[in-house]
Every structure is written in C-alpha cells, then in structure tokens.
Amino acid sequence: xxxxxxxxxxxxxxxxxxxxxxxxxxxxxxxxxxxxxxxxxxxxxxxxxxxxxxxxxxxxxxxxxxxxxxxxxxxxxxxxxxxxxxxxxxxxxxxxxxxxxxxxxxxxxxxxxxxxxxxxxxxxxxxxxxxxxxxxxxxxxxxxxxxxxxxxxxxxxxxxxxxxxxxxxxxxxxxxxxxxxxxxxxxxxxxxxxxxxxxxxxxxxxxxxxxxxxxxxxxxxxxxxxxxxxxxxxxxxxxxxxxxxxxxxxxxxxxxxxxxxxxxxxxxxxxxxxxxxxxxxxxxxxxxxxxxxxxxxxxxxxxxxxxxxxxxxxxxxxxxxxxxxxxxxxxxxxxxxxxxxxxxxxxxxxxxxxxxxxxxxxxxxxxxxxxxxxxxxxxxx
Length: 381
Ligand SMILES: Nc1ncnc2c1ncn2[C@@H]1O[C@H](COP(=O)(O)OP(=O)(O)OP(=O)(O)O)[C@@H](O)[C@H]1O
Ligand SMILES: [Mg+2]
Known about the structure:
Blueprint: H1 3-7, E1 12-16, H2 23-36, E2 40-45, H3 51-55, E3 66-67, H4 71-74, E4 83-88, H5 91-102, H6 106-114, H7 116-128, H8 130-143, E5 148-152, H9 161-174, H10 176-182, H11 187-193, H12 197-207, H13 211-241, E6 245-251, H14 255-270, E7 275-283, H15 295-301, H16 306-336, E8 343-346, H17 355-366, H18 372-377
Parallel strand pairs: 1-5, 1-6, 2-4, 2-5, 6-7, 7-8
Antiparallel strand pairs: 3-4
Residues 19-25, 155, 281-282, 345, 347-348, 351-353 line the site of adenosine-5'-triphosphate.
C-alpha cells in the first residue's frame, strides 16, 4: 500500500518516531504528495533547524499556516492540484494564544500573560513543545480549513514523550498542586502568613522584584482558566484517538530507532491510538540477486589507479555489509509491528531537506507496493 492509501479519508496524520529518523522530512513529503493529489493540506512542523522552512521558500514560517508556492514543485515534476500550507510551531506563541482563548476576560488574560511567573513557566512548558503541538493541531482541526493536517513531532530524545506530555500537563493543572496553589488561601498565602515571606521581602529589597505577589497573582488568575484547560486537553485526547486520525511510525533500520519504533507501536496500542503504518527511512538497499555494481567493471574503469580502486572496492563492500544489516533489522522490525508491507525510503546521496530531495522522498512514499521494488533497485548496492 502506498502512503496515499494508508492515509485515505484521514483528517489528521501524525508522524512519530525517534530523533533524527526523518519525521520532519516525511511529514513534509506526505503533505506535498497529498496536496499534489488535490487535497487542501496543512503541514505543521517542529524543526528548530528551520530546514523545512527554507526548503519551502518560507524563510519565516509563522505560527499560522502560510501558502506554499506551487511553482516550487512544478520545477521538480510535481503538479499541485490542491493546496499546500505550512507552518512551523512557535510553542510559546501557541501557549499564549491558548491562555488568551481560555481566559474568562481580557483583564485575566493580560494579567497572566504579563506575569513573570507565567513567562518563565510558559517558556519551560513551551520548551518541551509536545503539549503546544497538539493544542495547535486541535485548533487547526476544528477550524475545518483543511482536508488533512500532517503533524510533525518534536525532536525529543524519547518519541514517547510526545504521547505523555498532554496528560502530564493536564495532570498538573487538574491535580492537587495547582488547586492548592490557586486557592485564595493557597500556598502563596500560606508562605506569607508563616513568615517565610521574609525571604521574599529580602529578595524584593535586593532585586526590586516582588516574586510573592507575582506568584500569588499568577495562581489566582490561572484558577480561571484551569477548567478550560482540562476540557481542552480532554478534547485533544479524543481527537488523537478518533478514527479520523492516524499515527505513522517513522524509523530507520538502525538498531536503536528500530527498537524505539517497537516500543512506540506498543504504546500506541496501549493508549488506544490508531496506528496507520510504518515508514522506514534511510534504508541502504541490498541488490537482490547479482550485485548492482559490477566489481570487475569498476576495477576496469579505475584501471591504473590501484589505490583508488582498492579503496572504492572496500567502500562498496562496507556498504553491502550495512545494507545486509539493514535488511535483517528491517525484517525484524516489520514482523514485530505486524507490517508485511512497510514503506521504504532509501538513503539518498544527499540531504533530503531541499525541494528536490523532498520530491524524491515523496515518490517513494506514494509509490504502490508493486512499483516500489523497481524504484528501490535504482539505489541498491
Ligand atoms: N532518505 C534520506 N536520505 C538522506 N538524507 C535524509 C533522508 N531523510 C532525511 N534525511 C536528512 O536527515 C536529516 C534529519 O532529517 P529530519 O530533520 O527529517 O529528521 P527528524 O526525525 O525530523 O529529526 P529531529 O528528531 O531532529 O526532528 C535532515 O538533514 C534530512 O535532510
Ligand atoms: Mg524534526
């Protein structure tokens, strides 16, 4: 099955996987392919390196989707029948927007946003990015502006963080900690009443900053948005497990990402989240049957250059060893995930971050099962 068949009828497609396997590249290539086939697509990327933004000719991807120029793809043989919109997640802005939306009035909104404790906290939370990614996803999904939204996931050390983050934040907001803190007689008040306020007043004298006031005001104001937050988090949970949502697992054939893909697959199943397919990227392809590169022809070509010939032969043999290992890892990964037809994308000679590279990845993702082997063979060693 091609990726097109796998995401058919889905409104949300989430690309998960461990660090550096090609989530951002795959998300962009899927969005390009769907838009080429007539859909109105938004791709939400989280790419601190901003490679995608520059590839798409959007030097500054804002916190709202922006249209991507059709001409960019025409040059690479892709005719855009639909629309491609792209945005790069600005976690802090998304968090601020959410507070603004949930605050009961403008006064509370401004009080929270201007509060120093909030600013610190939101940067810390925003730094983890996971919660804001789904918050933005939700906002775009309910807007009904797009046929499909493709979500890239943050470059976290652990792919599972992405699934845990919303629950962690909701847990914090709904939990006793916050209720205790935000009550009028909460912790901030208690600290002051018990005289530990001395520390704060000493601090205030030294720094000129009234931390205690900030803290008390912050939790007081936040009390007003907690219910909205919890409700939103529940709606997000529902959206993630909706049959209109699909999670793709992106992996590479290297042992660690492959192992993480297996864990991730188990986690999706336990959490009741819909798994849509496995994409294995950066595969070094082993030529089936006779080697794709003829050693004696290579030696003849390099005749007279013995040292170079020897080095080339060694590099080729190393590559075949790696390709052999990839094949073994790939089989194991596919069988662990119960996937008899994983989507394979070869290791390209160059980075895949420009439009030319994305166009190649798009072709592999959207190739049907029958045409894929022939295309892969072109990259075989
Ligand atoms: N098939 C491929 N062949 C060659 N280079 C690739 C391929 N796929 C991705 N790359 C390159 O590998 C790098 C990492 O890819 P990408 O940014 O998509 O990974 P990621 O999973 O999003 O990483 P992170 O976890 O840091 O967000 C990029 O420079 C990209 O161009
Ligand atoms: Mg990325």
